[in-house]
Amino acid sequence: MDSFDGIIEFVAVAETHGFSAAARQLGCSTSHVSRQIARLEERLGCTLLARSTRLVTLTENGTAYYQQAKNLVIGLQQANEQVNLQQVHLSGVLRVSAAGGFAEHYLAPALMAFVSEYPELTIDLDLNSRMVNLLEDGIDFAIRYGELNDSNLIARKLVSRPIMAVASKKYLQKNGTPKHPNHLKNHSCIVSNNDAWEFNIEGNKEVVKVKGRWRSNNANVVLDACKKGLGIAYMPKSTFKTVLDRGELIPVLEPFWGQGTSSWIVYQNKRFMPLRVRLAIDFLVQYFSEWDEA
Fold first, then answer.
1. Looking at residue 82, which CATH number applies to its domain?
2. Which of 36, 52, 100, 117 is most deeply packed, by most CB within 10 A?
3. Are residues 75 and 97 in the same domain?
């Protein structure tokens, strides 16, 4: 075959079952679609489409040809998209809101990797634990942990965050090691987001109300308080990875750890989202696609 002309038009007709519908999809005239397919059939020496006044269907040869041709069209579309993305020159400011150890140790490096690909792009990362109003505060998207209550926002899951309970050796030597979540009522617990801790007890989710001498909504501060022996902490595993590797903290209540929750990318339902925002969101989802909290 000397030319690929007509293949895109043929696939469009096969999928829309009409010349007019295919023309609308491709943004060209019906006569152009008809001419291209006629030339394709002439080159192939067979009829691909059975035409009627109401419907266009595939012939036996057309069905076989479509199965191969559609993969060529998909491959061409993907190649075009890849080239277009490589030629994108993003500029302006990308404003992101996030907080906690995950944002500092994992999200920030991911955004650094993204911005390094676009020299004219600026990142404004606000590491503040307050609940921002994306529209009023001019935030393009935020990273939020836990249950999402704002139904006006679109949310895409970024990572799952299983949790674990830990304490320092100093604390356990002084206060003993809890063997069951109910024993936490007799311990000092370091409260972060809430004082109702969920555990898996005999296959059921059960909540234990805890209290202690230290409360903070900053994961790094909770981590420091735990290292100093102020109590038992219960947070996502990645928060403790480094100190566990160094033996500074000891896991407790492991058979009862809950599943935890997830971190999400949330953003406004904008009809015309800036390209820098869309590409950044897609980049982060792909970046963390193989995330393993363990």
1. 1.10.10.10
2. 100
3. no
